[in-house]
UniProtKB/TrEMBL annotation:
Classification via SUPFAM superfamilies: Rhodanese/Cell cycle control phosphatase
InterPro entries per record: Rhodanese-like_dom, Rhodanese-like_dom_sf, Thiosulfate_sulfurtransferase, Thiosulphate_STrfase_CS
Organism of origin: Natronosalvus rutilus
Keyword line: Repeat
Cited SMART domains: RHOD (SM00450)
Gene Ontology molecular function: any one: thiosulfate-cyanide sulfurtransferase activity
Stretches assigned to the Rhodanese domain: 17-126, 171-275
Protein name per Swiss-Prot or TrEMBL: Sulfurtransferase
PROSITE patterns linked: RHODANESE_1, RHODANESE_3
Amino acid sequence: MSETIVASVDWLEDHREDPSVRLLDVRDAWEFDGIGHLPEAVNVPFDEFRDRESDDPGTLPGQSVVESLLGSAGVESAETVVVYDDTYGVFAARVLVTLQLYGHDDVRLLETDYSGWAREHETSQESTAFEETVYEARPLDPDHNHEPDHNRDTSPLVDAETIEAVLEEPDSNDHVLVDTREREEFETGHLPGAVRFDWRSTVDEDRRRLKPRDDLEELFADHGITPDKRVILYCNTARRISHTYVVLRWLGFERVGFYEGSLTEWEARDGVIERGASG
């Protein structure tokens, strides 16, 4: 997974004619139609992947929703899906994680966004022809009681009970809680002992693409986020941690937990909160 979870611009250029590679544009429909898109891309707006009605933690859509969205976009389960947006990849990363959790084996984040691609590469305003499919999701099995091993059968999701267990070992060097939000949000309230790591720091905003791998490894290490530790990510509603999750997995981090409920669920449970600039 670590080598294939991010698609470089060069890789995509080399595979543009490959019928097994599908481009998924998750911007709003007006952007896709009015501004343009990558050639042969199909559009499924990000908001359609967010469930605002269920009682499940976070905003993951149900299985039937995912199957309907991907089937309506003509996606096959065996295809390589490359996802992009126009916000440095943060919305695309959330869709990527959603598809992985529902068992899509090969889904990748484009290393740049639409604006970055459009600077030097062809775009289109033509509709992409495709046939709808019957998409069958295969949700990964949850593993809340053990560390995720990121194989085909186990989900990286962790639950509130896992967070509670981690907080009971504040002096452990085996794990690190990572808050991917902005400084003001962090200082207003965060999980005790968490490290603040702004998800946008992984992006070269001038070039609108991910920073080089060596730079990213050094950046994470400077925050105490290293491959020997179990990394547990959270934000507010699991969008921003999706981007950091993808980057960590791209760098080869094996033990990365994804707290889907994040602070929205934690605060609803009256979980303990730390305030101030620590971390």
